Every structure is written in C-alpha cells, then in structure tokens.
Amino acid sequence: MDKSVSKSTQPSGGNGLPTSSSNGRKLNKKLIYLCSIVMAFLFFLGIAAFVFLFLLHKNPKATNKNIANFRVDSILVSRFKLSSSKITASWDIRLSVQNPSTESVLYQTFYTWIQYKQERLTNVTNIAPFQVRGNNWTAENGKLVAKSVQADEKVIKDMATEMANGSVNFNMGLYAGYWIGNEEAKGVWRAVEAHCSDLKIGFSSHDNVGKLIGEPIECILTKTW
C-alpha cells in the first residue's frame, strides 16, 4: 500500500488525540458556564440585599438589634388651665430608655414634646446628655412647660369635655440622637423618632393636678436613621 495514502487517512491530531483548537472550544464553554453561575449568584445576592434593606426601612425594630426602646413610666401634670384659646400646664415626665446593644450608648441629643391629638401643647424640650450601659435600662426625668400656648378652639372644647369626665388622653413625641460605643473613637451614630400615644392623665375634681393612669406606656418607633 502507498504510504502517502495511509498517512492521509490518519486523524489530524495524530494518535487519535483531540487537536488544540478542540481543547480551546471546550475551555471557552467552561468559562462561559462559570461566568453564568457567578452572574446568577451576584444577581440573587443583590435581590437579597435589596429585600433586607427594605425590611430594615419598614420595620427597623425587628431587624436591627441596636435600636433603642422607650417607655413612659409616669407623668405629673400641674397648674393645668384651659381658657377659650390657650392652655397652661407643667409636665414632669419620667422616661425609661433601653439599650439592647452590648455596647454602651451615649445619648447626646434628646428632645420631647406633648401633643393633644395633632396639636402640640409644649415647646420642644431637651433632656441633658446621659449614658446607658449595654443590655440595660435607665430612667430619665424631663420637665416640659406650656406657658399660655395658643390652641384651636375645637381642641380646647374637646379637651374640656374629656377633662369633665375625669381624664384626658395626650400623646408625646421624642427625638433621640446617640452614639453606640465610644464617641471619641468614632462609634456608630444613630437617631430615632418615637411616638408615645394614649397617655391617659386623670384629673381630680377639686384641683388642676393630673397623673398618668394605668401601666407604663411603651413608645413606638416611627423613624430611624
């Protein structure tokens, strides 16, 4: 047999092995497959991060262990007086603040105010800076004064009607800005707003002094950043 003919019938790679171009095609397919897996993983990771941030924004208390909790323990109202368009009163409030974090928390800014329905009855009052140890509660006192605050006539009438029945429901708002950890070491800064509703103040029939009725009231976080 002619040797030239037998050589022409052999595979181009020799010895029956794949050629280098065949190896390259297989390698490219593997790279494309791996890239697809990585892109799919990053895509689902991005979706998970978006869902987590969305839940954190909608329900910070349930998803962030470092969010503070607030509670109104007692309120004493004195010199309470209603006129046709004005309200005068002094408010002594005792608040409890919880720090769920294991780190110490320094409250640098703490504002409170009293409302009746949507009407603000006091100016914003600042409580002096204080510190709360990790996983602990602390109690703070605040004094708010409403000196002849102007109010809507209907608000005055509604309040007078409630007072004639022995009690008035007020609300309290608060804003707190605090450091988690050491401020000098640039710890984590957080701020929250909270609303303390249904603060039922009972008034006696013979004076203008009132006290919080019932159990302490837990406040609800309304905004965090």
Automatic annotation (TrEMBL):
For this entry, list what GO says about its biological process: defense response to other organism
Q: Report the main location listed first in the record.
A: membrane
One annotated Gene Ontology cellular component of this protein: membrane
Is the keyword Hydrolase in the record? no
Q: Which UniProt keywords apply?
A: Membrane, Transmembrane, Transmembrane helix
Location in the cell: Membrane
UniProt-annotated stretches for the region Disordered: 1-22
Q: Which residues cross the membrane?
A: 31-56
This chain belongs to the protein called Late embryogenesis abundant protein LEA-2 subgroup domain-containing protein
Give the organism the record lists: Populus deltoides
What lineage is this protein's organism placed in? Eukaryota, Viridiplantae, Streptophyta, Embryophyta, Tracheophyta
